Amino acid sequence: MSVEAMIEIYEQITHVMHQGQCISLAAPITLTGKLHPQAIDAFFVQEPKEMLQIGIDEAGRGPLLGSVTVGAAILPASWSGLIEEGVLNETPLSILTDSKKLSEKKRDTLYPLVQQHALGYVIADVPAAVIDQVNILQATMLGMRLVVEILIKCMAGNHALKNATRLPIVQALFDGNRCPEWDIAEFERIGVPHDAIVSEAWVKGDARHSSIAAASILAKVSRDAQMYALAEQYPHYAIDKHKGYPTKAHLEAIETRGILAEHRRSFGPIKRLVAT
Question: Which residues of the chain are in CATH 3.30.420.10 domains?
Fold first, then answer.
């Protein structure tokens, strides 16, 4: 994609609608990414009978430390589909699959390629304070909702999306067994009918659908980068080794050196230490 044609996405969310109420977040959720508006317009012109697919996945639900990270990716139409059907053969993303099945070296290779070739992508950083505030499931659902909403907002000014009469327009594909609930008022505010967005949950979708797999790379590599940064900040915790997961070495470091600001206080091992 042409760098000049890309729209930079950066937003810090401090208030959200959650379970029917507007809440002030304990810490901002940061969204970063890019969108290629001309390519999005071209999709709706060239693929009038196809839905624009957004793949969404997360990384970091299980660790005791740091953010849960959510990625969303829009691949070119011919690249978006079932991996087993070879949609990525003969493309720069030919080795793409579930990020957990790839070596770190391969993930690091794919990360800039996904960003380069996607029609649009967003990465959401949902910090530990928000996880503690609303619980890990709701924090993950919130991140998944927001990455789609910001892509829709960025596309809403495009002629092809704003004036489209056919439905559905966008298909959001979520890794896992559930989909987030949309903020209908937000869609109405930007002039996009909520039923223009359809949601699908894909169990093990990161190994099945190319767009979800691309999102899994964005989420995993972004979160790992955060862990490496924390490892430099707190060298005695060996965060670069365990990435925040409750390994024996991690738990021993917490017992010996204490709880960090980035630890999730609502998680069992940390919660028990806070209570003592």
Answer: 3-230
